[in-house]
Amino acid sequence: MKNPSQPASTSTIGRWLHGAAFAPLAIVFCVVLSLIAGRVADENWIEQFTSQGGQDVQVSPDLIATADDLREKIQEEKTSSDSLLVTSPDDSTPAVRVTVGRHFGIWSILPAVITLAFCVTFREPLPALLLGILSGALVLQQYDLTDAVLLPGLASTRAAGITLLYLWLLGALLGVWSRTGAALAFAEWVCGKFVRGPRSAKLVAWVLGVLFFQGGTVSTVLVGTTVKPITDRNRISPEELSYVVDSTASPIASLIAFNAWPGYVQSLIAVPGVAYLATEADRIGFFFQCAPLSFYSIFAITGTFLLSIDKAPFLGKRFRAAIARARRQGNPVTTGGVHVSADTIEPMGFEGDPDNKIDPDYRANPWEFALPLLTLIGIAVGTGLYDSPKVRWAFAAALGVAIAAALVRGMKLPSLVEGVGDGLKSVTVVSVILVLAVVLGGITTELGGGLYLSTAIGENAPRILFPAILFVLTAVIAFATGTSFGTYAIAYPLTMPMAIAMSSGLPAESGQWFVMICFAAVLNGSVFGDQCSPISDTTILSSLVSDCDLMEHVRTQIVPACLAGVLAMIAWTIMTAITVG
């Protein structure tokens, strides 16, 4: 039940009624602006011809024909850029990489801007994402929103993967744990063994965030759902937990990279004529060599550790007020999926009190949570050592172990099936938000939003400031699109040749160090922007599993995140100054 003492204007319905005169006007304005953009926006094509070692390229008819073919491929496949390595049959001329991309000028980022503005203003990610998708469709003059826009996006491999992983596998696993009470039993065991107060409770959350180094949404959900009962009992604010969960997920994945990241990124950084990037093994090794230069990730993880031991130097007034409120009053009451506090009432994605879903005739053992979790981590790490981590395999195996353990220990099949159903229902809203974020990301890519932002800076930046500029640029792209992996696909094929060209006048060792610094800046800028974006899947999930209002999480996290970003830019600038002399 909702606390009757709370003013109606703080509820979700109250906020919509409070903005009833403004919201329709804002929607109409966005739609009209998008229609106009679709009429006036022109395609801007970019062509790059890069040879081995950065030599000048004599553009031949063959290269022009290749560029034309890539242009047609981009239009057919609805993407923003593509590239192809062109070699001569007899090796008489250096290999040339032809890169072609398109964007629609400033209109390319209109859907992302509308989504962010609507989300910040009305604090509702679901309608914000839908409005952003509609805006992008209108800019592209695709007026059949269902069959031409939503259906292809929802039918994409990535959207299907999200549905399989987060709705079916993760939802079912959470449902089994909720029905058996295994997660609560594990939390009680950890609490009894290690937790002695708010500081040790946060430290447990931090350690788990570091241990679950698969990164992204997987780590976010696992850490959040595991430690939430512990932090609730020890007066840890939702803002603190969501910050620790979010700021250890992707940052740790870029440092302890036994996950899918190196295998994906290496495919984007191949530059002809560069020996240390020649083969896939070379590029994966290059990724690991750059890990110590991931200064933002290092500072972000350090910042969450300092918060865990109550030594954080700079959190901002809003964050400290949330901490003081939680220590004084305890965590807000959660009833029926509504987050009730003195400040806000927000709908949460994981509904209901987990205590009420436990089978009353079943007594769980902490190992019923630990064993599936160890299975999940073991398969993910084990497969990652030989190839890319098989995350869906890991979750499927963990679900199988959890179900088998419950049945062997005496849980009735109908009760277990009911738990699985509750788990699926609990993550439905989250899955819808994540899938819509994928659709919006695809539209932004098709519009060339990231490519537009990349070219807006140009190639005339001073070398000493170039890594810091790359960090800011990729952070803006990731913030606007809500995806770090999508930003890598946009930024690396453009920035790596630029970095190598800028290093051409340096000694070989110094030149490689400069490229490594630039690589780390792009890697970390994407993590920073994705982490702070209210339309990012990890940001949304961090707030949901922590029972924190989405925009409160964004507003409180952005202060320490920006501090880590500034310190990282200073560190990269100093390293660059030392490297280039």
TrEMBL record:
Gene assigned in the entry: mleN_2
Membrane topology term: Multi-pass membrane protein
Residue intervals of the Na+/H+ antiporter NhaC-like C-terminal domain: 267-570
Protein name per its UniProtKB record: Malate-2H(+)/Na(+)-lactate antiporter
Assigned keywords, A-Z: Cell membrane, Membrane, Transmembrane, Transmembrane helix
Any GO CC annotation of this UniProt entry: plasma membrane
Transmembrane segments: 21-41, 104-121, 165-191, 203-223, 261-279, 286-309, 369-386, 393-411, 431-453, 465-491, 511-529, 558-580
Lineage: Bacteria, Pseudomonadati, Planctomycetota, Planctomycetia, Planctomycetales
Coiled coil ranges: none
Source domain of life: Bacteria
Species the sequence originates in: Crateriforma conspicua
PANTHER family assigned to the protein according to its UniProt record, in alphabetical order: NA+/H+ ANTIPORTER-RELATED, NA+_H+ ANTIPORTER NHAC-LIKE C-TERMINAL DOMAIN-CONTAINING PROTEIN
Subcellular location: Cell membrane
